[in-house]
Amino acid sequence: MEAYKLEMKSISKSFGGVKALNDVSLRVKKGEIHALLGENGAGKSTLMKILSGAYQRDSGEILVDGQPAKINTPKDSKQNGIAVIYQELMLAADLTVAENIFIDDLAAGSVFINWKKLHSDTTRLLVSLGFGNISPTEKCGNLSVAHQQVVEICKNLSRDAKILVLDEPTSVLTFKEIEHLFEILKRLKANGISIIYISHRLEEIFKLCDTITVLKDGCYVDTVDVQDTTRQLLVNKMVGRELKDMFPARNAKIGEVLLRAEDLQAGRMVDHVSFEVHGGEVLGFSGLVGSGRTETMRAIIGVDKLEAGKVTYMGETVKFTHPEQAVKKKLGMLPEDRKVQGLLLEQPIRLNTTLAALSKVSDPTKTIIFHNKEKKLVAENLSRIQTKYNAAEDEVNSLSGGNQQKVVLARWIMADCKCIIFDEPTRGVDVGAKVEIYNVINALAEQGVAVIMISSEMPEIIGMCDRVVVMNKGRVTGELTKNELSEQSLIRLAMEV
Amino acid sequence: MKKEFNIRKFCVNYNVFIIFSVLFIACTLLSESFLLPINLFNIGLQQAAPIFVAIGVMFPIIMGGIDLSVGSVMALASSGVLAVMNKTDIGLGLGLALAVLIGLACGLLNGFLVAYCNMPGFVATLATLTTLKGFAYLITNGNTIKVTGNVLLDLCKRDYGYPTIIITAVVIVLFILMQHYTVFGRLILATGSNRTAVELAGIRVKRYILSAYVISGVMAALAGMWLAARTSTSNAVLGQGAELNAVAACVLGGTSLSGGRGSALKTFVGALCLAMIGNIMNLMGVGAYIQNIVQGIIIVFAVLMYGI
Ligand SMILES: Nc1ncnc2c1ncn2[C@@H]1O[C@H](COP(=O)(O)OP(=O)(O)OP(=O)(O)O)[C@@H](O)[C@H]1O
Ligand SMILES: [Mg+2]
Fold first, then answer.
1. Which 8-state DSSP code applies to residue B7?
2. A394 to chain B: nearest residue by CA?
3. Is this structure's pTM higher than 0.80?
4. Is there a contact between B202 and A328 if contact means CB atoms under 8 Å apart?
5. Is A443 exposed, middle or buried, given 0-12, 13-18 or 19+ CB atoms closer than 10 A?
6. In this structure, which residue's CA is closest to atom 18 in ligand 1?
7. Residues whose Cβ atom is located within 5 A of ion ligand 2
8. Would residue A260 be called left, alpha or beta, if left means φ above 0 and alpha means ψ between -120 and 50 degrees?
């Protein structure tokens, strides 16, 4: 029998009557990258939170190096060499890189901090991961998300982690950064560190991982070697049914120009941007994170100040200074960061869903809310994109990441927009639900809605868009029509200056 | 998925009602006079002002801010109205309307500073606390103003005198309905919960932040009138320290100081709890100093219960 670095046996966990995990097992070998796959709400994050001691299991056993490990608190977990990197990074933005990495023990056991040693230790760690370019004295808040992730990994390595968990690390990274991360992970693996890797992007799993464990609805489904399986087989295991078409066909008539932007300028990130989108069209925006795509849209809907340029919307020149004006004219934008810009985390799902469409659930003067109507509409719209939730009165916080995303999506579907901007609509969403979201986008386009889709996932851009605008450093570097689309052409334009 | 009864959630949600029941039973057992109609009536009359202030202050707190200036608003509004009443013969109705106007102005000032000048509520209302109190001193000249005649006493006549109590009850019900059934109430809560997200959903959040402070100002002004009515007098220190009592009632009622959570009903019950504690100690002849100590301790325990 092969020795496992980590075994989780028959783990069960309920949240007030909802079984999030039911008799789940996971075995990870030394020096392997083990993927944890499953739909939104399958229980992946919960299982990892049990491993990290953030949640206590109801039953089950955890073995590290074959020995039963008592993991009940985050401290126990650390002592067993386990490190979990959550999607929401937990760095102190105002502290420097070095301070963050050694935050547990800045003075290395003594009373005073030896800054020189601290900084050289930090540099050594960073260099070992190939990131000598990050300065130990830089404040973490100033780093890109990708670099913050590197710091987070260093922090855990400095604590002698032997088992590293990454929960959807790539959903905020660009393709360059993802490649970098994969290099790091492979290097760590070669050093004998076991990695548990959660992602909804199957192509990553095939590129990176050795073994795959699939969960579904809180239950263990299967563990397979990556060589012995195919994308199709995995999807079937995860979804529990055949998923024929990742990108369903769309039968939309492309109509008049609905929104035209000419020579837009706003801040440093929007530099003479022009584009137009027609009714019934899905226009993609591709580029690296920080290429100015989001900023362009924010300036159009009036969140940020539009300094120069002209926006024509539905035949008239508009200049929105507040999103209220845009939403009133049926131009909406689904923000990219659901936790910060999208959700009211401690409020019920119901309230979150109807936020942009309160006129639909109130009297014509927009004064009184009709609760029954609201409940009905919320249930309809959420089930349309297959959101998994317990009760509409639950806090949105208690949903799994992907289902939270669906709540924000439902909010904008309810708002009946004529032109809708989706900023990373499928971030953190599982394959099955992605297809549902694509179906929704298609349905919108078929109704004549102009859809703008900002996305960092190239397969999605290629599969879904009629036309793609590529941006880099605040400028439009090119436009591709459907038959010019390919990963190479997108990457080339995204790197162009 | 089956749903079980979740006792912990129940305790957190209904904490204030549990505390209220316990206190009520304790009070009944501790003193025979507690349940006498005259005593309950007195509580109602005395508590109208603190309840108004507490419900008002709850709204800035829901916004993640606070209104420290309520005490000064109480003094300014009541002194102002009483001063006018002494000069001209405006009736009770106009007097209350004037108070509302003064409260509105103060609330607009606070709300403007917070929503449109991006000041933290704590700082903005600390500044207006001093300034408004200064105005109250100017009006009263540092003395106590007394209205001659008993227009104001009509608000709290003992024999049939329900006006204050009835108005209080109606206002509480209106606020509960407002929070539960109106778009306005919904958006106040939403704005307090995540301002950025609400703004991106196409809502002018600054207006709601402003409204929160306006509600607080108006409620404080009326509270000032309730207090002044009981003695037909007012002065610049009327209502001093009212903000602390109000925040205590809000916290007892489960209002989150970081914003996004707060219910008029629970804040009302929270204020009643504080009232009962004060009342029973009076009935039992406990000295004022000890009362302060006990009150503080009870608040700490009540809030700890939310953390279980
Ligand atoms: N703190 C909590 N309170 C109540 N229910 C919870 C809590 N955390 C998770 N759940 C529930 O447990 C289930 C599993 O959630 P989990 O976050 O583990 O899913 P996931 O597999 O990570 O999904 P995703 O891919 O969307 O991130 C979900 O149904 C979720 O609603
Ligand atoms: Mg998750």
1. H
2. B9
3. yes
4. yes
5. middle
6. A43
7. A 45, 401
8. beta
